[in-house]
Amino acid sequence: MSDPSQQSLQPLPISLDQVEGLVRTLYEPGQGKKIAETEATLRVLQRSPHGWEMADSLLGSNDEQARFFGALTFTIKLNQDAAALSEEDSRQLLSKLIHHLASKPTMSIATRKLCATMAVYFGKPLSVWTLCIRSLVCSFVKQAPILDDDLDEMPSTWDLAPNLTSDQLLCLLEFAMNLADEAKKVKGQNRYDHQVGLFRTRTNNIQSCP
Fold it and tell me: With contact defined as beta carbons under 8 Å apart, do 35 and 70 qualify?
């Protein structure tokens, strides 16, 4: 996904294969100086406008380390640049995140990080996601992102749940646990009273999921 807030960006300055090579370098033993240089390069890319596009591309990789780094990059971008996104940008971002989880629901370190990233997204003021558990159940069954606006057309969650695989159920559980962790973080930050209110409203909606 290209940076939603920068439609006239030039292409990523290095190829995706090169980015994946840099990520693999981070896990190579005995190269302390090279690792430090690689981390610095990747950090610049993560925090640049190209970070959205890079994260999306890495999450589509078959390399587990690359996928983990893609999810990590999305988390960094959400914490750094979320305020610059429009509602439509936010919707597109959510669709991308759900797509990556629904297409590769096998539990792994990358999938766990993606579940954590999605919980971070849910807690942000830009979130357009309310019935997140139902949305994920429907998306798993349809193998495509199903956002809140399309949920009324889907069968009930209880009718769909028996169709989920063990891996999909584990992903739901992982996401739910991360959601609980995010709620604790928000609750502990008293200066974010408005954000706490938003989070409480959304979690109340989860509990009434059809």
Answer: no
Q: For the chain, count helices (H), then strands (E).
A: 10, 0
Count of beta carbons in the 10 Å neighbourhood of residue 194: 9
Of the candidates 181, 50, 165, the one whose C-alpha atom is nearest the C-alpha of residue 123 is 181
DSSP letter, residue 49: T
Q: What separation, in Å, do the N-terminal and C-terminal C-alpha atoms of the chain show?
A: 32
188, burial (CB in 10 Å: exposed 0-12, middle 13-18, buried 19+): exposed
Neighbour-count burial for 12-37, b at 16+ CB within 10 Å, e otherwise: beeeeeebbebbebeeeeeeeeeeee
Please tell me the distance from the alpha carbon of residue 210 to that of residue 200, in angstroms, as a whole number. 18
The 3-state DSSP class for residue 38 equals helix
**The two three-digit tokens of residue 154, written as one number:** 């889907």
The 10s digit of each residue's pLDDT in 130-178 is: 999 999 999 999 999 999 999 999 999 999 999 999 999 999 999 999 9
The rounded distance, in Å, linking the Cα atoms of 34 and 22 is 10
CB 139 within 8 A of CB 98: yes
Contact of 175 with 107, CB cutoff 8 Å: no
